[in-house]
Amino acid sequence: MTPATFYDAVGGHTTFVRLVDRFYEGVADDDVLRPMYPEQDLGPAKERLTLFLEQYWGGPTTYSQTRGHPRLRMRHAPFKVNPEARDRWLAHMREAVTSLGLAPLHESQLWDYLERAAFSLINTFEE
Protein backbone atom coordinates (compact mmCIF):
# COMPACT_ATOMS: atom_id res chain seq x y z
CA MET A 1 0.00 0.00 0.00
CA THR A 2 1.31 3.45 -0.94
CA PRO A 3 1.56 5.98 1.91
CA ALA A 4 -1.14 8.65 1.71
CA THR A 5 1.15 11.65 2.17
CA PHE A 6 4.79 12.70 1.82
CA TYR A 7 4.81 12.90 5.62
CA ASP A 8 3.94 9.21 5.87
CA ALA A 9 6.24 8.19 3.01
CA VAL A 10 9.34 9.64 4.69
CA GLY A 11 8.68 8.22 8.14
CA GLY A 12 6.36 10.73 9.80
CA HIS A 13 7.06 12.51 13.05
CA THR A 14 10.37 10.77 13.77
CA THR A 15 11.87 11.91 10.47
CA PHE A 16 10.84 15.53 10.92
CA VAL A 17 12.19 15.60 14.48
CA ARG A 18 15.52 14.22 13.21
CA LEU A 19 15.60 16.84 10.44
CA VAL A 20 14.89 19.75 12.76
CA ASP A 21 17.21 18.55 15.53
CA ARG A 22 20.11 18.25 13.08
CA PHE A 23 19.32 21.64 11.57
CA TYR A 24 19.36 23.38 14.95
CA GLU A 25 22.66 21.74 15.87
CA GLY A 26 24.15 23.95 13.17
CA VAL A 27 22.11 27.02 14.05
CA ALA A 28 23.18 26.85 17.71
CA ASP A 29 26.75 27.84 16.84
CA ASP A 30 26.02 30.11 13.87
CA ASP A 31 26.92 33.74 14.62
CA VAL A 32 24.52 35.08 11.96
CA LEU A 33 21.48 32.89 12.60
CA ARG A 34 21.61 32.27 16.35
CA PRO A 35 20.79 35.91 17.26
CA MET A 36 17.50 35.57 15.35
CA TYR A 37 16.25 33.16 18.02
CA PRO A 38 15.51 35.21 21.14
CA GLU A 39 14.90 32.25 23.44
CA GLN A 40 17.99 30.96 25.23
CA ASP A 41 16.77 27.43 24.63
CA LEU A 42 16.18 26.55 20.98
CA GLY A 43 13.50 24.06 22.07
CA PRO A 44 10.51 26.30 21.26
CA ALA A 45 11.92 27.12 17.81
CA LYS A 46 12.51 23.42 17.15
CA GLU A 47 8.93 22.63 18.09
CA ARG A 48 7.52 25.37 15.85
CA LEU A 49 9.56 24.29 12.83
CA THR A 50 8.76 20.61 13.37
CA LEU A 51 5.02 21.32 13.62
CA PHE A 52 5.11 23.58 10.57
CA LEU A 53 6.97 21.10 8.37
CA GLU A 54 4.83 18.19 9.51
CA GLN A 55 1.66 20.08 8.63
CA TYR A 56 3.02 21.31 5.29
CA TRP A 57 3.93 17.77 4.25
CA GLY A 58 0.58 16.20 5.18
CA GLY A 59 1.00 15.38 8.86
CA PRO A 60 -0.98 16.63 11.85
CA THR A 61 -2.41 20.16 11.68
CA THR A 62 -1.20 21.04 15.16
CA TYR A 63 0.73 24.05 13.88
CA SER A 64 -2.39 25.85 12.60
CA GLN A 65 -4.43 24.75 15.60
CA THR A 66 -1.95 26.31 18.01
CA ARG A 67 -0.44 29.19 16.00
CA GLY A 68 -2.92 30.02 13.25
CA HIS A 69 -1.99 30.51 9.61
CA PRO A 70 1.76 30.10 9.03
CA ARG A 71 2.28 33.57 7.42
CA LEU A 72 5.96 32.85 6.97
CA ARG A 73 6.95 36.24 5.55
CA MET A 74 5.12 38.10 8.32
CA ARG A 75 6.64 35.94 11.06
CA HIS A 76 10.14 36.51 9.68
CA ALA A 77 9.70 40.25 9.01
CA PRO A 78 11.23 41.37 12.34
CA PHE A 79 14.50 39.64 11.45
CA LYS A 80 17.14 40.71 8.94
CA VAL A 81 16.94 37.90 6.41
CA ASN A 82 19.55 38.80 3.83
CA PRO A 83 21.29 36.54 1.29
CA GLU A 84 24.00 35.61 3.82
CA ALA A 85 21.38 34.50 6.38
CA ARG A 86 19.56 32.57 3.65
CA ASP A 87 22.75 30.84 2.57
CA ARG A 88 23.68 29.87 6.12
CA TRP A 89 20.14 28.59 6.76
CA LEU A 90 20.33 26.53 3.58
CA ALA A 91 23.77 25.15 4.48
CA HIS A 92 22.54 23.88 7.86
CA MET A 93 19.34 22.57 6.30
CA ARG A 94 21.27 20.84 3.47
CA GLU A 95 23.31 18.98 6.07
CA ALA A 96 20.16 18.04 7.96
CA VAL A 97 18.32 16.82 4.85
CA THR A 98 21.31 14.77 3.71
CA SER A 99 21.59 13.17 7.17
CA LEU A 100 18.13 11.65 6.80
CA GLY A 101 19.15 9.31 3.99
CA LEU A 102 15.83 9.71 2.19
CA ALA A 103 15.04 8.16 -1.16
CA PRO A 104 16.35 10.47 -3.92
CA LEU A 105 12.86 11.53 -5.05
CA HIS A 106 11.81 12.43 -1.50
CA GLU A 107 15.06 14.24 -0.80
CA SER A 108 14.65 16.23 -4.01
CA GLN A 109 11.05 17.19 -3.20
CA LEU A 110 11.94 18.26 0.33
CA TRP A 111 15.01 20.20 -0.75
CA ASP A 112 13.15 21.96 -3.57
CA TYR A 113 10.56 23.27 -1.11
CA LEU A 114 13.12 24.31 1.52
CA GLU A 115 15.22 26.14 -1.04
CA ARG A 116 12.24 28.01 -2.48
CA ALA A 117 11.05 28.92 1.03
CA ALA A 118 14.48 30.25 2.01
CA PHE A 119 14.70 32.44 -1.10
CA SER A 120 11.17 33.76 -0.53
CA LEU A 121 11.97 34.97 2.98
CA ILE A 122 14.72 37.40 2.01
CA ASN A 123 13.55 40.80 3.21
CA THR A 124 16.71 42.91 2.89
CA PHE A 125 19.93 43.08 0.95
CA GLU A 126 21.73 45.01 3.68
CA GLU A 127 24.79 43.42 5.26
TrEMBL record:
Q: Which SUPFAM superfamilies match?
A: Globin-like
Keyword Transport present in the record's keywords: the answer is yes
Cited InterPro entries: GlbO/GLB3-like, Globin-like_sf, Globin/Proto, Hemoglobin_trunc
Which Pfam families does this chain map to? Bac_globin (PF01152)
**The keyword Metal-binding is annotated on this UniProt entry:** yes
* Record-linked CDD domains: TrHb2_Mt-trHbO-like_O
| GO terms of molecular function | heme binding; metal ion binding; oxygen binding; oxygen carrier activity
Source domain of life? Bacteria
Q: Which UniProt keywords apply?
A: Heme, Iron, Metal-binding, Transport
Q: To which protein family does this belong? A: Belongs to the truncated hemoglobin family. Group II subfamily.
Q: Which PANTHER family match?
A: TWO-ON-TWO HEMOGLOBIN-3 (PTHR47366)
Q: What is this protein called?
A: Hemoglobin
Per the UniProt entry, what species is this protein from, by scientific name? Xylanimonas ulmi
